[in-house]
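Archive entry: two folds, one per protein. Generate the first.
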Amino acid sequence: MQRRTLLGLTVAALVAPARAETWPDKPVKIVVPFGPGGPADVYARILGQALTESLGQQFIIDNKPGAGAIIGTEVVAKSPPDGYTLLMMSNTHTTNETLFAHKPYQLMRDLVPVSPVNSSDLVMVVHPSVPARTLQEFIALAKAQPGKLSYASSGPGTPYHMAGELFKAMSGTDILHVPHKSSGEARNDVMGGHVQMMLDAVTTMKGPIEAREVRALATTGLKRSTILPDVPTVSEAGVPGYEATIWLGIMAPKGTPPELVDRLNKEIAKVVATPKIRDAWAQQGAVPMTMSPAAFGEFLQKDIAKWAEVIKVSGATIQ
């Protein structure tokens, strides 16, 4: 009995590294729990194409939006931990840990951190019909008409929602949250004048700003955006200390072999470090992020705590 147990342990020790060496030997699925057209979808496709080229197996993007990213995330959490199903996640997920008390999974219990991907600032935009050309004018308008103005998001718990709630709390304004199924739908409603305001990623809103379909009032980083240098930050334009960003990362089902996680982490780091990717992302306002799986795990834990406090202070709820 003891001999068979030792033999089994020896075989397992030999097989695990071999599995990492041969992975991937079939297509890999990256589940994006958001709709098409948003940053998670866009950068998942860029990352997937780069990994396809470097690893010789197809990385397939599978959009599964709904319920504030919970539907697609649950699919990944319940998938085999074999390295062939991955999750493209964002700070929506760290926010959801507080906003949704009864999810069918827990982020840090049922998934393992693999690697961050990138981060970018948001930009506050309004429809051109809104009679406010500066952030201060918008705040004054909102205070003069409490509950009359509205802002769009891609759903409860998303960075767009939380950025809006944080802005309301710090500016002392009452603005109605209008959740949508995707950032694309939210963006279209603002450009169509159905909703007055949105805090959207600079990477996806730069085009509509340049086309004058919306008016940019402020960006949300601590420094001005390199791609919108003439637009002030929210902090300098009237709400001191305000900061909100959107970041993306990759997670895998719990139980995924550490050697597979490490290999994927290294492959993603190679992708985001390539001059072609870095230069292209810089022009879009996205900053590559690299961390070890352990460091990314610590980053996630801190972000969960951060947004728990923001939700407590702002009073943000699921609508």
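Generate the second and append.
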Amino acid sequence: MMKLRTLIADDEPLARERLRYLLAEDAEIVITAECRNGREVLAALRDSRIDVMFLDIQMPGRAGFQVIEEVGSERMPITVFVTGYDHYAVRAFEVHALDYLTKPVEAERLRATLKRIKEQIAAREALTTQEKLRAVLAMVQTKEAFRAEYPARLLVPEGSKDFFVSVSDIDWIEAADYYVCLHVGARSLMLRDSIKQLASTLDPAKFVRIHRSAIVNVDRVKEIFHEGRSEGCVVLANGQRLRMSKVGWQSLLAVSRNKRNA
């Protein structure tokens, strides 16, 4: 059941008592504060979360409209004005009050106001849920777009022709001066690119630079050996053994953990 934290603000004790009595009929209303003047209202709003406020217009210290001016209508809880005078109605709605009740407050009229309050809160929650869903969807779409930036194939020149190599088929990549050597099964293909540049274009969730001279396809790694404090090695599914630095070992472990948790 939804519980609405409610504040009653009125300088007249009998008016507060009557409103408290009428509100007690609604199990969703929880009165968390009663205030006698504008200063107490400001303190209550500052110190606790209030969902609904029944605010007298004429109070000592600060009147109801002064309270709204100090807090700002956009930061106010749902506000219902309660007053003995009906000539403030237009101004009340100008500051975005939900409703305007005249004293003495009638039970039937109050029930109608509470219904409007709950409808507005439900509408706000629905809007918030929609905004959250849109934010999640946007994040997913951004991630998908980001993933799509990684190439699925590499164009490799060979003599008078060029051909494509599927990135997923690459076992590991070796640095060779201004070139890199792509190890694809039993084939070794040369590509004019530095290992640093190539590493920046490949998906880091699938390809890890385990050494300054080697990038490995994580899916091809069969075993990891960490030897001492500085270096180790990995063994690929085809039996190939590659040197691995300490930083490379940490990067490979981080990617492996992320793949398990995904």
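Annotation attached to the second fold: The mean pLDDT is 84. The chain is about 40% helix and 30% strand.
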